[in-house]
Model the fold of this input.
Amino acid sequence: MEQKKEQEGQLQELMDIVEKLRAKDGCPWDRVQTHDSLKSCVVEEAAELTAAIRIYDQTGSCENLREELGDLLLQVAMHSQIAKEEGLFTIEDVIHEVSEKMIRRHPHVFMDTTVKDNGEIRANWEEIKAKEKEGKDWIPSPLREIPPEFPALTRAVKIVKKVDKLYESQPDAEENCDLISNLLEPLKEAVKEQDQEKTKQLLAAVLIQLSGLAYHTQISLEQVLTDQIEDIIERFEPDSGSNIIKS
Done:
């Protein structure tokens, strides 16, 4: 109980600091920030946290991981404080909502639901998630719900997955490979003819088929491309410290 009170006190301390930073006698930079102006900060902090996880995996040092988790938490605190000032919601509302969501999406843990395996857990999760979004007027359509702010490769895989589930069966992994193979000769010809528009179209088609292949094989295109980039760097600059950078 004492530990819980201490943790609650630390969260309140953070919120008090953020509130002070945005007060009239606070920091001029923090005071003028908005949800929109902080978008790039959230993206940067999430990327730095991802890097910290990589560093932790490679070195076993958690110092950077702890720091970057704090920086991401600060972004949550800033947005929550801005929302509080706007009369929308508070950090307590944010915590309560995510707590309720986790309970609701894990009926096999917090309720009497029985599941056979991880596949059924995932299916239940998706079904519950879909029900939660029913009637939400801020969701224009199932496909447009997937944010354009995602990296393009990540978004493409999610789009292909949703199309396969909701609208039209997509090629399976073997068919994706065949389609990629069929696109390569026309792509080669377009490059040879210096036809930029056709080259772009064919490159896009190849990337979509690769996204389908990634969907079926459950392989992250972002991650494999990142690893390949690091392999290239290591090949040409073997002494540049790439062993620290590579995922």
Notes: The two ends are 40 Å apart (CA to CA). Confidence is low (pLDDT under 50) at residues 242-247.
